[in-house]
Amino acid sequence: MPETNLQELLDRNARHTDALESGHFDAVQDGQEPAAVAMTCADSRVSQEGMWAVEEPGWLFTPSTIGNQVWDRHEGDRVVDGSMLYPLVQTGTDVAVVVGHTGCGAVTAALEAVRGDGGELPAGVRKWVQELVPVIEAGLADDRVDPDRADLVDQLVEYNVDRQVEFLRESENVPANVSIYGFVYDFQQVYGSVPGRAYLVNAGGETDPDALRALAGDEDADQVQRLL
Asked: Which residue ranges run through the membrane (predicted)?
């Protein structure tokens, strides 16, 4: 496990600022109009901006939650998480992306909870794992999910991405003009041989691989793959 200290944090920030070109933030001094918002899993192995090769500030709005969940609870009801919703209703962003990832620890923890194998978790973590439990239960009951396959967790990751996309599509708070896409970030070469590739698994509720490849185009068809 890598270690760090205050000096390394300061040094890393110094390298960051040294690498910035003059005027790097000029275009976003007075506000932001990000092109897309991407809800990823809160995981140190998932580079939110890196996976899209984002170098310029203001292009991508980058919320993350445990298990890339786009919802939260307000007065007992599920609502779209404010960090996901804010750019869609306040900054004119019209592309929403949900990104799961292979080997997701949150999905694994929810699966263990469903099976009665989970240990005690701090309340703040337990809240998010419990929000995933109904998704995992529904996934296990889905005929497309094969619990005997070695990639069960990754099947459920994909199933969860579908459910998150569905929730955004059905929310009356998400503007009708917003395009919604679901991806799985694969750094374990589950979907293919290119580590770090984001595979398109859902486009506005469309999950048929052939239809997704048609949307992606011939040049990018190899970035479409599904386990389910």
From this structure: none
The answer to whether domain 33-223 has CATH 3.90.950.10 is no
- Other C-beta atoms closer than 10 Å to the C-beta of 52 total 18
- Determine whether the annotation assigns residue 24 to a binding site: no
74 band by pLDDT with thresholds 50, 70 and 90: very high
**Residue 140 near residue 112 (C-beta atoms within 8 A):** no
> What's the pTM?
0.96
Burial class (CB in 10 A: 0-12, 13-18, 19+), 97: buried
